[in-house]
UniProtKB/TrEMBL annotation:
Protein name per Swiss-Prot or TrEMBL: Helix-turn-helix transcriptional regulator
Record key words, sorted: DNA-binding, Transcription, Transcription regulation
Source species: Plantactinospora alkalitolerans
Domain spans labelled HTH hxlR-type: 1-97
One Pfam assignment: HxlR
Alphabetized Gene3D superfamilies for the sequence: Winged helix-like DNA-binding domain superfamily/Winged helix DNA-binding domain (1.10.10.10)
Transcription regulation listed as a keyword: yes
Coiled-coil ranges from the UniProt annotation: none
Highest taxon, organism lineage: Bacteria
Amino acid sequence: MEVALAAVSGRWTTLILRELMHGPRSFGQLRVALPTLSAKVLSERLTKLVRHDLVECRRQKGFPSQVVYRLTTAGQLLRPLLIELYRTGDALLRQSRRLPD
């Protein structure tokens, strides 16, 4: 369990993984999808995910060349965990809205 939680730790990491669950994305596409995330933090999180073999980075041919990020096989294994984390977070949020202050 600790390995899985460590893989998704860090602010923004789960949101980046969520975007990549929909398919390969360029850095620019990720920036558009996560507009409040700075380029610096996005770059740092992607570097960490690549280093942990959860995301692969491929440079596409052409001019200008484009870097595309996609989940690796190991990254795909996180899909059920992420889905359940989002479901649980949503349920907790709804529960907290029903509680009196």
